[in-house]
Structure to design on (210 residues):
């Protein structure tokens, strides 16, 4: 409520223009899209704060070393893995091998994505800014992340439901063995398992580009 929204829209527009390149949106287009988002968010009823606060930090892409601003949720219940233990991504019902820890346990994850969480659950969540961003920059990055899957809470939820259904089908295919298994790229690495439906999508994309 205390930010200068004109500055917020300008920051978002600059970021989108850099990403889209040849067909960047105008500031007016950005304002038209995000003003609707802001209006919807401001109209949400007050709720109990989400258990994990927003966390905004300065980060560096591990591949091309490009700096960027990361937006996620901080896990306040995080604990460090047992010293010397190796990560193990096991499944429920299986014993953890000696000298390993289960990376799927929430307590061992410091940060979580906001993807898939309804906007109405996040509306009164505190923001922890550990970046060098101004308040307008912080808000612009959070709005950009919130709208990654849609311009409204309903649209974003429909997209997430679609993704969850595909993940469910992919897990079923892996369990049934209808998948392609690639050997690890290096000794001691893990196999890469690609469900048949995902493999078909990859091949369709490759064939379309030919």
């Amino acid at each position: 409520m205390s930010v200068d929204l004109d500055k917020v829209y300008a920051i978002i527009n600059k970021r989108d223009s850099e990403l889209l390149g040849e067909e960047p949106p105008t500031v007016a287009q950005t304002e038209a899209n995000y003003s609707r988002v802001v209006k919807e968010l401001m109209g949400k009823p007050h709720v109990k704060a989400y258990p994990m606060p927003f966390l905004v930090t300065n980060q560096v892409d591990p591949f091309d070393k490009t700096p960027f601003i990361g937006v996620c949720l901080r896990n306040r219940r995080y604990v460090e893995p047992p010293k010397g233990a190796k990560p193990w991504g096991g499944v429920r019902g299986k014993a953890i091998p000696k000298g390993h820890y289960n990376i799927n346990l929430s307590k061992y994850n410091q940060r979580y994505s906001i993807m898939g969480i309804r906007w109405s659950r996040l509306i009164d969540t505190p923001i922890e800014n550990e970046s060098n961003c101004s308040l307008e920059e912080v808000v612009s990055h959070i709005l950009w992340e919130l709208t990654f899957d849609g311009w409204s809470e309903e649209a974003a939820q429909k997209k997430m439901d679609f993704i969850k259904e595909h993940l469910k089908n992919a897990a079923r295919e892996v369990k049934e063995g209808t998948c392609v298994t690639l050997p690890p790229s290096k000794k001691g690495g893990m196999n890469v398992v690609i469900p048949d439906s995902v493999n078909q999508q990859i091949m369709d994309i490759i064939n379309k580009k030919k």
